[in-house]
Amino acid sequence: MALVTGITGQDGSFLAELLLDKGYRVFGVVSSDDDAGSWRIAHLEGRIELLTADLADLDSLVEAVGECRPSEVYNLAAQSFVPASWIDPLHTGNVTGLGVARMLEAVRRIDPMIRFYQASSSEMFGKVSEVPQNESTPFYPRSPYGVAKVYGHYLTVNYRESYGMFAVSGILFNHESHRRGLEFVTRKISHGVARIKHGLEDKLVLGNLDARRDWGYAPDYVEAMWLMLQGDKPRDYVIATGETHSVREFTERAFEHAGLDWKDHVEIDKALIRPAEVDLLVGDSSKARAELGWQPTVNFRELVELMVDADIDAVAEELGNRPSTQTPAST
Ligand code: NAP
Ligand code: F7E
Predict the structure, then answer these.
(1) Helices (H) and strands (E) in the chain, counts
(2) Nearest CA to ligand 2 atom 2
């Protein structure tokens, strides 16, 4: 039995599918009646059980963990959009940082034998001190989001060392899919390309095209989360493809796949440039590959193409007024 916070998010929806396939009874935390991400789990209705709780409210989390008494908890809930963390650093600190403390406390109080996964992030490396980044690379976060994730990361380590809990952090590099939120750059591009291809828009407005990321495919990454909780010993792992590409390369490839020239459609808006940028991320996941037997199955080119194809199909469905399972109803 497993409890997943953030089940309405990109990763939560894929993790729920993976756990159901493995025969788990799956409980998911939803934060309120707000159904922003419900489209991602609509197809799982009747197969997963939802509990209302909020990462800002300890009592609600204790109640949720106590109600289902899972053997595994996956803490995926967070305010996860980096630019929003400058707009409201207190909210991000409260949910993305202190929310981890509340989840760990809820687990410790109900049953410290429950295995706990924390969704740590490559954003913790920020202004990187070495290339590629591995489990020993020092953290230097560059946003309130990254700072909050460092707090959650070390608190998870601390609960493991203080209470002997099986609490682990996956330091996951960017991972994407057709279920990515539209605000993140890969999905903004694939969705923008699809709308341009269908004649609904002509321009796509982006920020820093020079930033480089190690982009993988989200279903591969939720498998790594599960593998981390099946080990003999609680350990933290970097999960990454080991390939790095610029936002410009992603853009170029996405437009090219749709038979378009990106230079005809992309405009730059300096307002989208971040106050402090993470310029280059590329992960070394050799520890996970050796100890967990994990490896990515989708490369950069395949990722771009599958996202563009999915959005072109989804926009076509919307134009034909057929229901789509790949985007929020409003887009
Ligand atoms: P996502 O799509 O933004 O999903 C975030 C989830 O958190 C949503 O289900 C959201 O539900 C929930 N949530 C937000 N505030 C909450 C609160 N106060 N209480 C309870 N739930 C709350 O994120 P994702 O891409 O799936 O990522 C999953 C986790 O991995 C996040 O912690 C993220 O920071 C981390 N991470 C992501 C990546 C990546 O590349 N995707 C890489 C490294 C780490 P509502 O919208 O209904 O509130
Ligand atoms: O930005 C640049 C932007 O918002 C990637 C989250 O899941 O992964 C994600 O964080 C890059 C940045 O993701 C636009 O400046 C250019 O350098 O897609 P993103 P992120 O900030 O890397 C990490 C691992 C997480 O943990 C986070 O939760 O793209 N960029 N133009 C743009 N970014 C956006 N969003 N929009 C643009 O128009």
Answers:
(1) 11, 13
(2) 208
Residue 290 has pLDDT above 50, yes or no: yes
Measured in Å, residue 33 CA sits from the centre of ligand 1 at 16
- Is the pLDDT score of 330 beyond 50? no
The alpha carbon of 78 is separated from its chain's Cα centroid by a whole number of angstroms, namely 9
HSE-up of residue 78 (Cα within 13 Å, Cβ side): 31
Q: Within 13 A of 177's CA, how many CA atoms are on the CB side?
A: 17
Q: How far apart (Å, rounded) are the C-alpha atoms in residues 206 and 255?
A: 14
> How far is residue 314's CA from residue 323's CA, in Å, rounded to a whole number?
9
11 lines ligand 1 (CB under 6 A): yes
pLDDT of residue 34: 63
Among all chains, which residue has been given the structure tokens 């204790």? 62
pLDDT at 36: 75
Is CATH 3.40.50.20 the classification given to domain 185-212+243-278+298-319?
no
Mean pLDDT (the chain) is: 96
Q: What are phi and psi of 266, to 5 degrees?
A: -90, 130
Fold classified for 2-176+216-239: Rossmann fold (3.40.50)
Phi/psi at 227 (nearest 5 deg)?
A: -60, -40
Beta bridge partners of 240: none
Domain range summary for the chain, segments of one domain joined by +: 2-176+216-239, 185-212+243-278+298-319
Is 117 marked active-site? no
Residue 323 pLDDT exceeds 70: no
Longest dimension (CA), the chain: 58
Is 145 one of the annotated active-site residues of the chain?
Answer: yes
